[in-house]
Every structure is written in structure tokens, then in C-alpha cells.
Task: structure prediction
Amino acid sequence: MKTFFLIDGFAFVYRAYYAFPEMRNAEGMNVNAVYGFIRMMLKRFAKHPDYFVIARDSPGKTFRHEAFEDYKANRKKMEDDFKLQIPLLRQIIEDLGIPSLAIPGYEADDILASYIQTYKSDPELSLYLYTGDKDLKQVLQDNVFVVDPVKDTPYQKKDFVREFGFDPIYIVDYLALLGDAADNIKGVAGIWEKKALSLVRQYHTIENMYAHLEEMDAGLASILRDQEEIALASKKLIQLMQVDISSVPLTSLSYKVDYDKYFQLLCQEQGFSSLEKLLLEMKKESEKPQQLGLF
Result:
């Protein structure tokens, strides 16, 4: 069985910035997010995935901003100390040859979902999606796993069904009812977690709920009826879109670490001397016969 690791790039670089202490390079620039991100990627490379891709958000607005002006409007502005590291990290990723993709007008989540939709039917492939976003759990399948960047353990479809009581695809409807504060998506006021779970378990989709309002008590039916436009709009914002990834197919995502290049770019040019020991250990380990088992 081959493995395909799909990385939510911003989830990792954001975590790296806040998890690693300030580090200054020779020019006096803080590079802790760059260092932390690369270190996190090296841990994933050590698992020897057959295919690997980092999905990146594009600068500027997406189709979701066009549909909803206040989409993510509540997010704190990125600190300059953090923002300045992004171009450097992007250049290092390119120089190291790490496969990555950004598509204007779409988010990294859409790219990740598109790869999964395209390759999930391959019986010889297991897909591991590294992200902390709960809405991406909608892609869970028997051979598609979601891996939290912190816990680093795979979350399976059966885990989701045990936790929520419905199939992963319906988390879109569940979140549409509750809203998503992180993205400034409203949800249906007056519908709380317990009731949202109950509704999705019984009716599955938002559309089916509205087709059966007459079955519900008058108060609940009134809440839903009065906020139908909000519920449907929220679902549209949460649903992941299929985008064209044909320019970077699976066959181009086979990746092996070039240790000489890593030593040069990271240890020598960037001054990340503390990575040298890790890289030496990984190089030595890579020369051994690979053992089965990722986690």
C-alpha cells in the first residue's frame, strides 16, 4: 500500500510561529516559523511517504469572500514578524523541491479536498491529510485519514462516526447549523450543539431538514424557517470545492529528501545548525531497509 501525505501548509507554519522561540538569522530577521515548519516537515518525511504535497492559500480574496463580504473578517491581522517570513519560506520550499500548490481564488482546503476526491478510489493508496481544521473531516473515507498536526495520530472514519453519530460528509450541515467562529460564519441562531447533532443524525442535510419542517415542533421549525437563507449560505461557504489540480498530478508528487541540498540551504545558508544532527540521523535511517507501519 502506497501512502500520500497532504499538508495544510498554513496550519503548520502558524503552529511553528507560535511554538518555536524567536530565532534571528544573519540579517537579523526572525526565522522561527521557517525553522519550525521545515523541522515539522522533516518529521513527516521520516515516515517515507510515497507522495507528498503542501497546499497553500493564495494571497488575496477567494470566491468565498465574493459570496460573503465578512468571510474571515474577524481574524486578527497577521503580525509583521510572521508575515515577513512567508516569502522566505515559500522560496526555501521551492529551492528544496518540495511539492506545493496554490491556486488563485481558492483556499488550501479546496486543493486538499480536490486531491482526495481525485485519488481516493485508488485501492492501492492510503491518503493522510495533515490539518487541524474540523471542516476538512468531511473528506474522511476508509482509506482517507485526518492527522492532527499536534497529536500526529490518524483519525479514521469510524472514529468520526463514533463521535458524531453520522457520516463525515454531513459535518458540512452540522457546522452550517452551528456556524464557524474561526471563519466568521454565522450559523443558525438558537441551534446549539446537542440540537444540531440530533437534526443531522435524523435528517442528514440542511435541505432535507427544510423539506420536513412540518415534522418538527413549532419553535424549532420557526427558528429554521426564519434563518433558511443563513443556513444555506453557511453550508455553501463550508463546502469544499473541486479545483483543477491537473497541472500537478500524483505522478509528480513523489519526493525524496536531497540531504546535501538540505545541509547547504538550511544549515549553511540559513544557519539552522541544530538541524544538522536530525538530518544526519535521517540520512542514516534512509539508507536502511524500510519497515512497514507509519504510526
About this structure: The beta strands are 2-8, 51-55, 100-101, 125-130, 144-147, 154-155. The chain has two domains: 2-162+241-286, 165-238. The mean pLDDT is 92. DSSP finds 14 helices and six strands in the chain.
